[in-house]
DNA sequence: TTACGTGCAAATAATTTGCAGTCCC
DNA sequence: GGGACTGCAAATTATTTGCACGTAA
């Protein structure tokens, strides 16, 4: 049920199992979410074009441009439902807006200063050494690395 | 002009150069900020008690409890002025609130899931291996590592 | 004195919620 | 048909701004 499946060429689109929209509906159902028109449309934008980092505001604008009438409140609700279902990950970013990442696999980020934008780090793996022991009764859930970039010169 | 100087024992408080408040005023002046009553009071809370991670809301409440009448707007303004002056660092945290770190030296963070709280990682140094090359025309400004902790069991 | 700061309240931005109506299963 | 979902608007929360007044240098 990897979301990359949604990017398969369309040559098999006539068979249901190869139809991207059908796959997306299955993905939603598998997450316990009804594949409503709005969720399918937003899911299509989120998972149909590779890895993305979106804010509610940005996704809403994009939906309107694509002639998909959906309310901002529904975008917020949908993003949080997708996050709860594990289809999205909320990313830590300084500032007041919340961003979501469509890539939920283990990976890290570049943060472009000035543009306040994030890009996945292409490295297959990135190791952190000298990691300290977590405090008593705690365990490490995940390690996030953010490499802040600025324009040279 | 390390802020840790503010934590020196008070035995030299009778000499101006050893007076913590006087040191703080110098620190503010050195940053190009007038040492007004409000800035000195907030600076005292921020830099006089070790490394801290604060939000505007939280610092404002703390100030009121300490009988320091200061408006929330001034707390916001002061935090941003301190940040511009390099006395504070804004930290990346998921969620809608902005947090500031009084420790501006090179270090990393534990993030306590559920409590939405950050703690400095005590490790003197933490190495990241296999760091990828930054894109053309970009350079690495900083590397932030966030170790997410959850309660065991 | 006088430019820089501050307080207040109003403006803006970001997000959540309540509820009547709509749509999937 | 019925409960899950959506849209709208109003409520909350987070932050910024404008302006009259105060204060450090």
Describe this structure in words.
The structure is a homodimer of 153-residue chains. With 153 residues, the first copy, chain A, is of the alpha+beta class. The first copy, chain A, is built from 4 helices and 7 strands; from the N terminus they run H-H-E-H-H-E-E-E-E-E-E. In chain A, the strands form 2 sheets. A 3-stranded antiparallel β-sheet of chain A has the order 1-3-2. A 3-stranded mixed β-sheet of chain A has the order 5-4-7, with no helix packed on it. The first copy, chain A, is globular and about 50 Å long. At the A-B interface, strand 4, strand 6 and strand 7 of A face strand 4, strand 6 and strand 7 of B. Chain B binds a DNA duplex (25 and 25 nucleotides) through helix 2 and helix 4.
Strand content of chain A: 15-25%
Largest sheet of chain A: 3 strands, antiparallel
SSE pattern of chain A: HHEHHEEEEEE
* Ends distance of chain A: 44 Å
How would you write the strand order of the largest sheet of chain A? 1-3-2
* Poorly predicted sequence stretches spanning 5 or more consecutive residues of chain A: 1-15
Helicity range of the residues of chain A? 25-40%
Helix count, DSSP H or I runs of 4 or more residues of chain A: 4
- Rg on CA atoms of chain A, Å: 18 Å
Secondary structure category of chain A: alpha+beta
Q: Largest contact between protein chains?
A: A-B, 41 and 42 residues
- The total strand number of chain A stands at 7
What's the rounded overall pLDDT mean of chain A?
Answer: 85
């Amino acid at each position: 049920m990897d979301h990359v499946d949604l990017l398969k060429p369309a040559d098999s689109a006539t068979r249901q199992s190869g139809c991207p929209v059908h796959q997306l509906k299955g993905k939603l159902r598998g997450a316990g979410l009804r594949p409503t028109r709005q969720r399918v449309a937003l899911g299509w934008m989120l998972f149909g074009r590779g890895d993305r980092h979106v804010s509610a505001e940005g996704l809403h604008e994009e939906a309107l441009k694509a002639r998909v009438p959906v309310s901002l409140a529904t975008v917020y609700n949908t993003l949080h439902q997708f996050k709860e279902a594990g289809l999205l990950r909320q990313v830590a970013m300084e500032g007041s807006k919340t961003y979501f990442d469509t890539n939920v696999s283990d990976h890290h980020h570049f943060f472009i200063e000035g543009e306040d934008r994030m890009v996945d780090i292409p490295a297959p793996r990135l190791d952190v050494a000298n990691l300290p022991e977590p405090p008593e009764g705690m365990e490490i859930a995940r390690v996030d690395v953010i490499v802040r970039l600025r324009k040279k010169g």
